[in-house]
């Protein structure tokens, strides 16, 4: 888990490798698939800030909530900020995706 996250971070920052945001997302997604909260929070940040792709606050909220559910305090703070900017429909959609995933 941590190794996949570390690879994602290296590609996001360009540390010891050529910066490649698609590969960063790839490795973060692999780590997130096994419930690694730091990777979920990294994905939330990428979507929140538009790092590598267009800003997608709903998707950022989704990833932040997954990380927050595991006790990641910075993800919890990010999720609260993001929730305030989402429409009720966007918020409901993201929350439904979370419920579906966790069943």
Concise structural overview:
By secondary structure, the protein is mainly alpha-helical. It contains 6 helices and no strands.
What this model shows, in words?
The protein is mostly helical and 103 residues long. It has a single domain (2-101), classed as Tetratricopeptide repeat domain (Serine Threonine Protein Phosphatase 5, Tetratricopeptide repeat, Alpha Horseshoe). It is 74% helix and 0% strand. Helix 2 (21-32) crosses helix 3 and helix 4 (57-68) runs antiparallel to helix 5 (73-85).
Low-confidence runs: none
What is the CATH architecture term?
Alpha Horseshoe
- Kindly state the percentage of residues in helix: over 70%
By CATH reckoning, the class would read Mainly Alpha
Structural class: mainly alpha
Measured between the Cα atoms of the first and last residue, the distance is 22 Å
What is the number of strand segments? 0
Q: Give me the strand/helix succession.
A: HHHHHH
Largest sheet: none
CATH topology: Serine Threonine Protein Phosphatase 5, Tetratricopeptide repeat
């Amino acid at each position: 888990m941590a190794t996949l996250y570390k690879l994602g971070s290296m590609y996001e920052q360009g540390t010891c490798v050529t910066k490649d945001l698609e590969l960063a997302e790839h490795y973060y997604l692999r780590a997130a698939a096994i419930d690694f909260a730091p990777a979920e929070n990294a994905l939330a940040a990428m979507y929140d800030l538009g790092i590598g792709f267009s800003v997608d606050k709903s998707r950022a909220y989704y990833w932040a909530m997954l990380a927050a559910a595991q006790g990641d305090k910075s993800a919890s703070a990010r999720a609260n900020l993001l929730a305030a900017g989402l429409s009720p429909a966007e918020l409901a959609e993201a929350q439904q995706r979370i419920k579906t995933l966790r069943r």
